[in-house]
Design brief:
The chain has 240 residues and is of the alpha/beta class. It has a single domain (9-238), classed as Nucleoside phosphorylase domain (Rossmann fold). The protein has helices at 27-37, 71-84, 120-125, 136-149, 171-179, 188-198, 220-225, 229-238, and strands at 9-10, 20-23, 39-46, 52-57, 60-65, 89-98, 108-115, 131-133, 154-160, 183-185, 201-211. The longest helix has 14 residues, at 71-84.
């Protein structure tokens, strides 16, 4: 294809990337998943050392690729995967901070929709909605996968934020009360916008890494290697 490689993915063979992509933010988490769960792994390069890995899980080709942090980063990589590499479904697997007592550290969350103050969807596609939903069919399959594996899964509307630090210490409470968001991360809204604009499918599984309520936290090493339940659920779907 004449448009390959893309400006951000240095892969010239679209057949090397599977139709279903698992997309953690951290490239080290992508490598951990590939090393731990996949066989016959092939690595392809992207800019900014995100790295991508395609291997087999129960003989099904699956790609795992880091997205980087924030909506601009996942917006670029997921768009190129959808638009130029023929990817049909991207499942983000990441970490989130809990806004609600019902979500504790290590809980696995299936995102139903993402609220954001970001102008990403408006600027990119003229989508004015501040809340975008995950693919209903993919979420249904993720629910069934979790049931099959006997892994607990909690559904939630989330906050996709552009900022990690804020001078307003009550900002998270305002978002929770006004928009019904139970946890916060920084990528899903852009992923859902790309999927909506391009006629693709997208979903998001999150593991709670810290809590605004009880102030529990996990380490970077725990986030990289211990958040495996969401990975197992995503892989169970992807192998079908």
């Amino acid at each position: 294809m004449s448009n390959l490689p893309t400006p951000h993915i240095e892969c010239t063979d679209p057949q090397l990337i599977a139709k279903v992509v698992l997309m953690p933010g951290d490239p080290l988490r992508a490598k951990f998943i590939a090393d731990t769960f996949l066989t016959d792994v092939v690595c392809f390069n992207t800019v900014r050392n995100m790295l991508g890995f395609t291997g087999k899980y129960h003989n099904k080709p699956i790609t795992v690729m880091g997205s980087g942090m924030g909506m601009p980063s996942i917006g670029i990589y997921s768009y190129e995967l959808f638009a130029f590499y023929g990817v049909e479904c991207i499942i983000r697997i990441g970490s989130a901070g809990s806004y609600d007592a019902s979500l504790d550290v290590y809980d696995t969350v299936l995102v139903t929709e993402a609220y954001s103050e970001s102008t990403f969807a408006k600027n990119a596609f003229g989508i004015r909605s501040k809340s975008l939903k995950a693919s209903a069919s993919v979420n249904h399959r993720l629910q069934k996968a979790a049931e099959k594996l006997n892994l607990p899964l909690k559904e939630a509307k989330i906050h996709s934020s552009d900022v990690f630090y804020s001078s307003d210490p009550t900002r998270w409470q305002q978002i929770r009360e006004k928009y019904g968001c139970k946890c916060v991360e920084m990528e899903s809204f852009a992923l859902f916008a790309n999927a909506k604009a391009l006629g693709k499918k997208a979903a998001c599984l999150l593991t709670i890494s810290d809590s605004f309520i009880n102030h529990k936290v996990t380490s970077s090493q725990e986030r990289q290697t211990n958040f495996v339940q969401m990975v197992q659920i995503a892989l169970e779907l992807a192998k079908k």
